[in-house]
Amino acid sequence: MAFPSTSSAGVGASAIPSSVAETPDDLLQQMNDALAIEQNAKNQEKDLEERMRILHATLPPATPDTVVLPKPKVEDEANDEDEEFPWCTVCNDNATKRCLDCDELFCEACVRKIHRQSSYKKHELESYRPSAKARKKYNY
Region entry Disordered: which residue ranges (predicted)? Predict the structure, then answer.
């Protein structure tokens, strides 16, 4: 960027470019504009404060009837619905085995009786013990 060369003999008002030179009227206009902006901001702030005061004055106080209570836990209900009964699906005796392929619970007698058939012989079985909650709930 090239700067205009000025000679020391020409120092004065003519050395300042005309776009930068401002008259006192221009400066007064800028100050008036700045004051108008500040005044407008103050008016908006006062208006907002007044609106908030009116809003707070007209709101009903919070009472126990209008207090929002937390929702009850749905997990407990969902767990109860998904919870399996800890007894044999055939005879309702206490279950001791779970068939992983059938996804059913059996007592010892029923698991031997049903899973000795050829179509069930390859089913995988595991020991079953109900959860502490189920044992307590069903007196297992």
Answer: 1-26
More confident residue, 2 or 32: 32
Between vectors from CA 32 to CA 30 and to CA 36, what angle results, nearest 5°? 115
In a domain? residue 77? no
Q: Within a domain: residue 65?
A: no
pLDDT over 90 (residue 132)? no
User: Quick one: pLDDT at residue 10?
Assistant: 47
Distances (CA, A) of 25 to 15, 17, 38, 39, 109: 21, 18, 20, 21, 108
Residue 75 lies in a domain: no
Q: Each residue of 20-29: pLDDT tens digit?
A: 567 889 999 9
The greatest distance separating any two alpha carbons of the chain, rounded to the nearest whole angstrom, comes to 121
Q: What is the mean pLDDT of residues 27-35?
A: 92
SS3 assignment, position 94: strand
Q: Which residues pair with 94 in a beta bridge?
A: 87
Structural domains counted in the chain:
2
Q: Specify if 87 maps to a domain.
A: yes
Range of the domain at 89: 83-138
